[in-house]
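tool_call predict_complex ligand=adenosine monophosphate
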Amino acid sequence: MGKNLMSESSDTIFGKIIRREIPADIVYEDNLCLAFRDVNPQAPVHVLIIPKEPIAKLADAESQHHALMGHLLLTVKRVAEQLELSKGYRVVINTGADGGQTVYHLHLHLLGGRSLQWPPG
Ligand code: AMP
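tool_result ok
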């Protein structure tokens, strides 16, 4: 399998986290999604929210994922409240090569706990 095909295959390191094959600091889970702390945090709070369904990237989402996409956003809000980010936070989805995506399993970054700069690089 070529490198690009491999990087966009349905099994990624996040699939291994969902299946508990590698450890993660999980902060929330339900039947549709999982939230865990980023191993290389860019802010005092840096959590990744992922669907259990292995959608590779936002650009691959389809109309059948309508409800799931809403659920992911509402889960961000729920986790932000759970982690007491009352002063605000940022939500980021890196998509594809130019978006800086490195793990090809859709994920929402929740960043908070400090004042964040804009624009990002
Ligand atoms: P992206 O660049 O948007 O694809 O983000 C991927 C993120 O996954 C990065 O912020 C990494 O630090 C994070 N990451 C990679 N491997 C792990 C892991 N095993 N546990 C938690 N976060 C991870």
